[in-house]
Amino acid sequence: DGGITQSPKYLFRKEGQNVTLSCEQNLNHDAMYWYRQDPGQGLRLIYYSQIVNDFQKGDIAEGYSVSREKKESFPLTVTSAQKNPTAFYLCASSNPDELAKNIQYFGAGTRLSVL
Amino acid sequence: DQQVKQNSPSLSVQEGRISILNCDYTNSMFDYFLWYKKYPAEGPTFLISISSIKDKNEDGRFTVFLNKSAKHLSLHIVPSQPGDSAVYFCAASKGSNYKLTFGKGTLLTVNP
After folding, report:
1. Rounded distance, CA A92 to CA A85, Å?
2. How confident is the model at residue A39 (pLDDT cuts 50, 70, 90)?
3. C-beta atoms of A101 and B51 within 8 A
4. Which residue in A28, A102, A110, B72 has the fewest CB atoms around it within 10 Å?
């Protein structure tokens, strides 16, 4: 069945280490997104991609990088430059229509912690 | 600058009664609004949405009302069920912009 798969569910990062979070979708959606959620906070946009080989910074892109080489995949790398990486990371996808209805569908999330 | 605000961090209601969750926004360019439901350690799931050309949208037990002049929307759940207990996020978008702006969420607890 169709959906968005994020892996791993839990991830631990050592100081100075880069880690990559996986996001795969089989919904044939053009657009994909990465959000970060901190306790008591809403979802904040890190990066988004409207189409393959193109992506834009969101509101909190510093310390993160992405790639979009395939339509179904949008991995997020948390670099050592991100000084406060502990959070719940959510990937989403959508197919905005001509009426600008942008219903985004989410994966189950990855919880990243710093050792 | 928080453009979408959910001023009640939590709400508690009895099973069978109505739950009303509120959301205010400041950006008059927003023209599409969504509600998501989220359980702990899971991703949000889409509940219901409304376009700015409407003032009400209904889907089963869920109804969203939009008051553009007040820049306010609300989600009504009738009747409330214990399984509705979750965090509810309000989100908004404008035009062809792909970005959604989320509120901080309201934790709804429905007591049996």
Report:
1. 19
2. confident
3. yes
4. A28
